[in-house]
Amino acid sequence: MQAHNEIKATARFALWTLAWVATLALAKFGPQHLWDPPQRVASWAAVAVNLAVGIGWIVAFTHVLRTIDELQRKIMQDALAVTLGVGWILGFAYVVTDDASLVARDVDIAVLPALMGVVFVVAFVVGKIRYR
Fold first, then answer.
1. How far apart are CA 33 and CA 41, in angstroms?
2. How far is CA 52 from CA 12, 29, 47, 59, in A?
3. pTM reported for the whole predicted model
4. Of 38-42, 72-76, 118-122, 125-129, which range is least confident?
5. Rounded to whole angstroms, how far apart are CA atoms 69 and 5?
6. Residue 24, number of CB atoms within 10 A of its CB
7. Are 64 and 9 spatial neighbours (Cβ–Cβ below 8 Å)?
8. Which residues does 34 contact at the CB level (< 8 Å), separation at least 6?
9. Cα-based distances in Å from 2 to 5, 53, 69, 80
């Protein structure tokens, strides 16, 4: 029964993730490709939908955390802690270096979540290996 609940919660979380990515893409690319000339109302509506779906994603993720067993939760929380730390430290380091004009060119903000995704996956895999 526990395994069935974990699979169900994970599948629901995966669907929320796909929905959030789709609404993020709509909010990002809609003003340039779907509603030309740019329409502020449509753009704000797309952002609002993305925020609402993002809240659903958070609720689904917390449900996954409550559903998985204690060891899986520990591995997940450790990976999330490392990811938050890396994102926080590197994000603020970039802000400081940019403000001090130490960075020659601007870095696209999309690099940070991509980096955090890689860090999370690596930290999760390390945790799975460590607690085998």
1. 15
2. 16, 18, 9, 11
3. 0.81
4. 38-42
5. 11
6. 16
7. yes
8. 26, 42
9. 5, 27, 9, 23
